[in-house]
Design brief:
The complex is a heterodimer of chains A (304) and B (249). Chain A is built from eleven helices and 13 strands. Chain A has 304 residues and is of the alpha/beta class. In chain A, α4 packs across α5. The chains are: A alpha/beta (304), B mainly alpha (249).
């Protein structure tokens, strides 16, 4: 079974507003997939439907190939943390996890100590939940997700409220879980630079529609540094570039634009080469898109 | 379902508020007995130091019992409801959650009721002037109250699971269990065939039960069971159906 989560034509309507428009999605084994969208784009609604907190208006959800009532069993293989994790405020971390351990039918009591160790709360296990900082609460939420030895984690804003060090620790933890235990991860977050360091796949959602779905390679390709030129004669420019640099990688785009993907450090020489050979360079710039800029570009297009 | 009940049981037994409420209820019974006993001993013409009067405090305190039921129900359906979202994401069905919480809080409530009754009888029979058949009448009257009190418990549970506000629940309890008889009598008086319906109202039945207990004419009343069962079934059906479709946040 390579597909962990699959949805077909999934929709959610609140009153007259269609918050999720027919949505087809699949999460394959081993992936770390980032769900990216603005506030109100439909991320949490989508994740809540996967978790069962919200009933879809129409469409189907398959978890490990099972849907409907059969899904209850397969849900045990997924650790969900949707928005802020909820625990009993007067219970310690151990008591809270014990409550859920009993509920989930996890036989081994020592699993509680293990997951607290994994998330770095082993020394804080006797502290009451209400005395925890936001970051500790988030970590306990992840510990709860890990309690049942899941094959997949679905995390909605897992680094909310964490400081820089905490964010890095959670990122390392998630990468470790993915690499060492082959845990598949679906994660949403608004800190896009952080997602870029974590995810292998990026899914952009806007107004309840998936507007783009990229692999890390495609995103890296799109976000790589490049020289962008606007010239009066693109054909001559291309010829000159090929004659001078045997390994040159470039693309000719509409509006007399040429982008060059290598020899970035030799930008000055390239400019002189063109000017000396009579090419009018109207624009010359070195640019690189990060995930945030790519996302803003997408949202901008979608709004247009 | 067993695992869910076990986990809620783990939670329930660590909830201080619930144990304090139980303790206060039992202490109030002891305190009222002690007060009546004190005045019985020190006031020569004090007429209320009798087991009949002592027991009538319970039979006549239906709304107080429902408030206690409300507090017990709150133990598992109060602020901790936010944890339900986690349970649901683990694959536990809403039906399991609805019925497990009910079974557990009801069991605990019934245990406290039984302990309270035994304490009442123990104190009533040892401290006060004994009256003939007062214990058996007390037990029959309590048995008559049971279905209506339980229907109140189910109503509270269903409304709490549907996220109804606490003030709203109290208003509904007052409406059904305090004012319903008078309202039905007033509204349905001109309608022939329905003018006797008020006799099936919970508040009328609570009053009747108290009157017959004070007259020492208590007997088993099946009408109370009809009322209790009808309200219980309606509340639980609506509650379970609504909760099954509810947005859990």
């Amino acid at each position: 079974m390579n597909t962990i989560i699959q949805t077909y034509q999934l929709t959610k309507t609140f009153k007259a507003e269609e918050v999720i428009k027919p949505l087809d999605f699949s999460l394959r084994k081993g992936e770390i997939c980032a769900l990216i969208g603005k506030n109100g784009a439909g991320k949490s609604t989508f994740l809540k439907m996967l978790a069962g907190q919200l009933m879809p208006t129409s469409g189907d959800i398959y978890l490990f190939g099972k849907s409907g009532k059969e899904m209850a069993q397969t849900k045990k293989r997924i650790g969900f943390m949707i928005e802020t994790p909820a625990f009993f405020p007067d219970f310690t971390a151990t008591q809270n996890l014990e409550y859920f351990r009993i509920q989930r039918g996890v036989v081994e009591k020592k699993r509680i100590a293990e997951v607290l160790q994994i998330v770095g709360l082993a020394n804080q296990k006797r502290k009451r939940f209400k005395e925890y900082s936001m970051g500790m609460k988030q970590r306990l939420g992840i510990a709860l997700c890990l309690l049942g030895n899941p094959d997949c984690l679905v995390l909605d804003e897992p680094i909310n409220g964490l400081d820089a060090e905490g964010i890095m620790e959670i990122r390392k933890l998630l990468l470790k879980l993915n690499q060492e235990k082959q845990i598949t991860i679906l994660v949403s977050n608004h800190i896009l630079t952080e997602l870029q360091l974590l995810a292998k796949r990026f899914m952009f959602i806007e107004n309840g529609v998936i507007v783009d779905d990229l692999s890390k390679e495609s995103l890296d390709d799109k976000s790589r540094k490049q020289i962008q030129l606007k010239v009066d004669d693109p054909a001559k420019t291309a010829r000159l570039l090929e004659q001078t640099y045997a390994d040159i990688e470039y693309k000719t785009l509409p509006d007399n634009i040429i982008t060059i993907q290598n020899h970035i450090e030799e930008g000055g020489e390239i400019n002189r080469l063109l000017v000396d050979n009579g090419v009018l360079v109207m624009e010359f710039r070195i640019e690189a898109l990060n995930l945030e800029e790519y996302f803003l570009g997408l949202v901008g297009e979608s709004e247009k | 379902m067993i695992n869910y009940i076990k986990s809620e049981n783990y939670r329930l037994f660590r909830k201080k508020g619930l144990h304090i409420t139980s303790l206060i209820c039992l202490l109030l019974i002891i305190f009222s007995a002690a007060t009546l006993y004190y005045f019985g001993q020190h006031e020569p013409n004090f007429p209320y130091a009798t087991s009949l009067f002592f027991y009538s405090n319970v039979i006549g305190s239906s709304i107080l019992i429902l408030i206690i039921a409300f507090l017990f129900n709150l133990a598992l359906t109060g602020k901790d409801m936010s944890l339900i979202k986690q349970s649901i994401s683990f694959g536990i069905s809403r039906n399991t959650i609805f019925w497990s919480k009910l079974i557990l809080t009801l069991s605990y409530f019934l245990v406290i009721c039984v302990v309270g009754l035994l304490l009442m009888i123990g104190l009533g029979e040892n401290l006060f002037v004994k009256e003939e058949q007062s214990v058996s009448n007390f037990l029959i009257a309590s048995f008559n109250m049971l279905p209506i009190v339980l229907s109140g418990f189910f109503m509270i549970h269903a409304m709490k699971m549907m996220k109804a506000g606490e003030v709203y629940i109290i208003i509904m309890l007052l409406f059904f269990f305090v004012f319903s008889g008078d309202l039905l009598r007033l509204i349905l008086r001109p309608i022939s065939g329905l003018d006797e319906l008020y006799q099936y109202a919970p508040s009328t039945q609570f009053n009747e039960n108290l009157m017959s207990f004070m007259d020492q004419s208590t007997q088993f009343e099946f009408r109370y069971w009809i009322t209790g069962i009808v309200i219980s079934v309606i509340c639980l059906l609506i509650g379970a159906r609504k909760f099954a479709k509810q947005y859990i946040d």
